[in-house]
Design a protein that fits this description.
It catalyses: uroporphyrinogen III + 2 S-adenosyl-L-methionine = precorrin-2 + 2 S-adenosyl-L-homocysteine + H(+); siroheme + 2 H(+) = sirohydrochlorin + Fe(2+); precorrin-2 + NAD(+) = sirohydrochlorin + NADH + 2 H(+). This protein has helices at 22-33, 47-54, 83-95, 133-146, 151-160, 162-168, 172-183, 186-192, 196-208, 232-240, 252-255, 278-290, 309-314, 331-339, 368-371, 387-396, 426-432, 450-453; strands at residues 14-18, 37-42, 58-62, 75-78, 99-102, 115-119, 122-126, 216-221, 243-246, 263-266, 294-299, 323-326, 352-356, 377-381, 404-409, 417-422, 439-443. It is of the alpha/beta class.
Length: 469
């Protein structure tokens, strides 16, 4: 992160602007809107500068820039069309340890002006660090259409009640839950329809009658890794949670979308790595919910497809803990699609089976005869460690050694790798390429389409496989 985003209070603070043309004019408007006491140095001034001077909003100094003019100012902006003058301003400001911005010269900026979306008192600043201003402008245009105008009045209204809320609700979690109720209540629609007094009365009634909410558990599927595959509901609940209990399989970009002040608890769940016992995870969810917290149980993929989501919900029932389940894109669908492998195709596979590569201790073996039928796709979760056993059982059950297979490592993520071969080469492929978890095995004739349909990322060159002896 090249620039630290901060918001600074310029009310009543002296700011020096070098330049009086149209570029300087844009900066001046923003500074005056922020309450700065503005001094402008230039040989000529746009008409607006003259008006501001007459209104006492700005002091105009006609003439050359002098380094001594910097003294006493909090910020300096160089906005002339003379590179030598701008460089002199930058040098003089940095020598005095005063923050300086040189317009259109990123190398001579100790701070930059972001693009601003104003819903006062709500403000959103967007910046590319000076690298892509056109892209930033497009993002601002999109966000402007998404953010309603009533956000400002809503923020002002809840700010008016802030002290009363703090007095009535003595802990942060209770206050946050109250505000979440407000933001999904009639208060918002009243403001939207231009009824501020009715909105205020409603909010006051809500505060007077507020009862603490019970704890709740959100069992949320995070999908296979690409954050853009999250559902809207998943993102909303991740932002509401007081605590997020997550697995290793949840990608870091997705974890970055969790509410910043939420407590994060990792319970593992990764092949070959230490993880919290399931019974401990169950007990943790119960304890947190009974403490009145909103708990997001965030799982890779889909919680009801090899995710043990049902087991975790069952333990909540005796305690009457409310819960929600948010499905996620399971690895079979997401990773196969990103690898260019259709799980069904009328010419190759009329059925698909999902199976886990490992069972409970002393668990029964899968029905290998059923899994070995032709004209179906077999997707194996968590199959890396037992790939040799899986290969041997399928061959013994009659599946052809020439059946196409694919190994999908880190599917849907930037580091995705795809390796294709045949069933007879499955274990050797995994060893040859040192495939690591998370990875998925896809077995079936549809894999033959991967070369034609692959679309995502830099395609890994396909291994030249020689028959095994």
């Amino acid at each position: 992160m090249q620039y630290l985003p901060i918001f600074t209070d310029l009310t009543g603070k002296a700011v020096l602007l070098i330049g009086g043309g149209h570029v300087a004019l844009r900066k001046a408007r923003a500074l005056l809107d922020a309450g700065a006491v503005l001094t402008v140095v230039s040989h000529q001034f746009e008409t607006d500068f003259q008006h501001w001077a007459a209104q006492g909003k700005a002091v105009l100094v006609q003439g050359d820039f002098q380094p001594a003019q910097i003294s006493g100012h909090w910020l300096v902006i160089a906005a002339t069309d003379d590179d030598a003058v701008n460089a002199a301003v930058h040098q003089a400001a940095t020598a005095r340890q005063v923050w300086v911005n040189t317009v259109d010269d990123q190398d001579k900026c100790e701070f930059i002006f972001p693009s601003i979306i104003n819903r006062a008192p709500i403000q959103i600043a967007i910046s590319s660090g000076g690298t892509a201003p056109v892209l930033v402008r497009r993002l601002r245009e999109q966000l402007e259409t998404l953010l309603p105008q009533h956000l400002g009045p809503l923020a002002t209204l809840v700010g008016k009640f802030r002290k009363n809320v703090q007095q009535k609700l003595d802990n942060f979690a209770a206050r946050r839950q109250f505000y979440e109720q407000v933001f999904s209540s009639k208060v918002v629609s009243l403001l939207q329809s231009g009824q501020p007094q009715a909105a205020e009365d409603t909010l006051e009634q809500m505060l007077d009658g507020h009862q603490p909410l019970r704890g709740e558990v959100f069992v949320v599927g995070a999908g296979p890794g690409d954050p853009e595959l999250l559902t809207l509901k998943a993102l909303q609940l991740m932002q509401q949670a007081d605590v997020v209990v997550y697995d290793y399989l949840v990608s870091e970009p997705i974890m970055q979308l969790v509410r910043r002040d939420a407590e994060l608890i990792c319970v593992g769940k990764k092949a070959g790595a230490h993880s919290v016992a399931q019974e401990e995870t169950n007990a943790l969810l119960i304890r947190l919910a009974l403490e009145g917290k909103k708990v997001c149980r965030l799982k890779g993929g889909d919680p009801f497809i090899f995710g043990r989501g049902a087991e975790e919900i069952e333990v909540l029932l005796p305690h009457q803990i409310p819960f929600q389940v948010v499905p996620g894109i399971t690895a079979a669908a997401g990773c196969a699609a990103y690898a260019g492998i259709p799980l069904t195709h009328r010419d190759y596979a009329q059925a698909v089976q999902f199976v886990t590569g490992h069972c409970q201790k002393d668990g029964k073996e899968p029905d290998w005869q059923s899994l070995s039928r032709p004209n179906q796709t077999l997707v194996i979760y968590m199959g890396l460690m037992k790939s040799a056993h899986i290969q041997a059982q399928l061959l013994a059950a009659g599946r052809s050694a020439d059946t196409p297979v694919a190994i999908l490592e880190n599917g849907t993520r930037p580091e995705q790798r795809v390796f294709t071969g045949t069933l007879g080469q499955l274990a050797a492929l995994i060893e040859q390429h040192q495939v690591q978890s998370p990875a998925l095995l896809v077995i079936g004739e549809v894999v033959a389409l991967q070369k034609k349909l692959a679309w995502y990322g830099a395609q890994t060159p396909r291994a030249q496989i020689t028959p095994l002896n």
